[in-house]
Amino acid sequence: MKRILFPTDFSEVATNAFSYALEFANLIEGEVIVLHSFDLIPMDNQFFPENFTELYDSIELANFEQFKEEIPKLRQIMEKRNYEHIKMTHRLMEGDLFTNIKKSILEDKIDYIVMGTSAEREWEALFAGSNSGSVILGLNVPMICVPMGVQFKKFKKIGYINHYTPNDEKALYSLLDIAKKANAKIKSLYVKTSNSDIDTEYIEKWEAEFKQEPIAFCMIQSEDIKAVELDFISKQEIDILTILTYKSSLFENMFVPNYSKKTESEIQIPILVIHA
């Protein structure tokens, strides 16, 4: 059974993303592991000789009490969506979020992560600065990032930003498993710029390879990658956008400038990040 990690601080943003975690778990017949990570206040005990231990204990207790109070609310969401059959377990961990997520991935054998993102600028925070942004490039499991305010919508059209590399080919085959379970279609977009070295003949080979699969390939020639991709999301009515991360400056140059100026009110779909 596939395992989905759901990190939460029990905020409205995180709780909203829980619906995606449940729906995705139901889709892939998986289970959900709820992770609440908290930091203890860094202090030097020489300045708190009398109540140092008590203070730390009180912080731990407060987080534990919050954990106990919030879990039933998540179960109410499960019941409302008729997903009581989905197995849900819980982890309360002290430390920074990135470290605890990596630890949980190893210890709990995590296959996917579903996480809400929040900041003044949703898409900038997604790649640089927020909790989600800081973990995306450092993890090796697929991750669904749900922007603030996005309500769940079934995956009928899955967008994929394609660069026609061997890693993209591998990612598409992986994405096909999800698409077929959801009875969805994949819309692949390649933006050809003046610096692109991919020709029509090469793209036709890909189309032939995936001819029997529910994938539609689209190539648009333009120097304005941002405008083309945002127009693609809108006109194709994409429900979730899939991107493949390249752990290099290429990824940051391609995506941080393109999405950082868009707020959550302008882009209302989640992103599925697959690691190269």
Automatic annotation (TrEMBL):
Gene3D superfamilies per UniProt: 3.40.50.12370
Pfam families membership: Usp
Domain UspA span(s) in chain numbering: 1-147
Family: Belongs to the universal stress protein A family.
Entry protein name: Universal stress protein
Originating organism: Flavobacterium cellulosilyticum
